[in-house]
Please model this.
Amino acid sequence: MSFEANGDRAAFQLRFRSLVGEANEFTCPCDAAGHVVMDEMSERGAARRFMNLLGSPNWISGVALCSSNTAAINRMVYGWYPYPDYAQTNCIVLFGHNPKQHSWTPIYNAIRRAQERGAKLIVMDPRKSESAERADLWLPLKPGTDAAMCFGWLKVILDEELYDKAFVEKWTTGFAEFRKRVDEFPLVRVAAITGVAPELIAQAARMYATTGPAVIPWTPITDQQRNSTSAIRLMCSLRALCGYVDVPGGELLHGFHPDIIHESELELHDALPEAQRAKQLGADKHPAFTYRGTAALGEPAKRVWGYEWPNIVSGSYMANPSAVFRAMADGDPYPVKAFVTLGNNTLMSFANMQLIQRAMMNQDLIVAVEHFRTPTAQLADYILPGDAWLERNCLSDAFGWTAIYRPSQKVVEPPGECRGVYHFWRELAIRMGLGEQFPWATNEDVLDFRLQRMGMTFETFAEKHPYHLHKPRYRKYEQAGFATPSGRVELRSIILGELGFDPLPYWRDEPPHDPAWPLTMFMGVREDEYFQTGHRHIAALRTRSPEPRMFVAAVTAAHAGLVEGQWAQVVTPQGRVKLRTAIRAEMPERTVRVPHGWWLPERPEGDGTLSGAWEYADAQICPDDDDYLDMEQGIPHLKGIPCNVRAIEAPAHWVK
Model:
């Protein structure tokens, strides 16, 4: 792959300079296809640094609907994003998450070790997943009802006085109002919403509250619901009310490592003028993780953590993706004309693929830094070959989530003209007259700079430390309070109230049922073989999973006239996608699961389908109108979309 796949270097520099230099509105989604992984997130803060210096607030990412949005909402409740203490916990709660031995391996191992020493496992999942089969309790809740389930647990815990009264009295604010809101959710109501029997809901709540300390690990499922903000806040409230925050066996507020410079410190958010922050797309309507939504957290963060701009898992100071794509497509509220995507198959990574293609086709410049000619890269003016994580050195701290640092040493040099993300941004900065703000010539120089307080280079650190952390300190809030405006755990959110939202968590009912859409679909769950959308070209994986499939129960398939292996369309109000029928015993009735990210790299380009993406990609059947967006964050509802299925003839590509 050449460095400029569709043009020459000089033309790229001239065109980029003229576009972003004049418009000063620029957007850059930089992340993996719906999930955070090292390969795309290891950019040393360089992307944010470049954009803040350039004057653009419109950085977006797949992390907007995958863990980083959760981090941003957690900050509103208690000032950091807590990380589970698996080694000492007595109970683990999984909301839809299904860690496996070959995927989410460290989490899978931590859960297994905890169970071996007697920890309880509670799993909530519409499917009877592998984790559900291993659980002490399995609650088969309906897709997208996580918030309602949390209300049910809280009702039991508060009614039966299973909460930590001393902690609530001293370290929370808004408890009386919060209690009244929880009282609106008797178990009979929660059971009607979730489909889980009241007795089972109560049993699970009691197990969580009485066998602790317990943990509720992050789940990508709750990130992607129309009640996501409330559900995340309610999970935070469960942790706090039961006294499980920043205690051994609970969930720890790590803060910054005192001897290693955090990537947030490289991002230079204070260099972005306030007038430019005010232009951030989506901040007016969906502000939760934007500059506007996080502004009130700056002073508390500096008071508690010593730095004003903690950007945990890049979950703060983002623009809203749907708003960015609408500005790109229609110029409202202002035009966006240059788009850079790094390691992100953007077209297939967000909701409303129809809008995203229209947005991209309205750009004057598209640059993709990639490994493969993904459907997104096929629309680019320039494709720059990026390196892979085995081809670069890295410091890993769970993307700023923890104060535990692990070195990742490159094992091979990147081939050909492949370059790392830091190289890309630095070289671009030099050509834009910002080179003096990127004084580190290489990625290794950045790593050495970040380790300077320890008095060692990255090479020395990697030789001496397979990991590095200081002895954990618990209940740090007793010294400095929580990094919130009140200094306490905010059950009633001061920030959300001031932004014009309900300051208490709530439940937002689904839109009225339409008999044209009798089934419920959830999407975004990957097949075992494919973590990224770019992996369909790998022969060994395609042999194991050669075709796109939808997963349904036998009774659902029979009702639709489908049999195992038959081709079908899944149709939603947004669009339709072709998939082969796969009947699975673990699937609940009237529910359809659509895996994430299908396209066909082997299909020749130029037939109008973007290598099959327009036939098989799930992003085209997920809406992003107001009914299907979380109000505070503006992220799409991927867990519980009304749909229908119908039999079709096998697509020509699959006819032998």
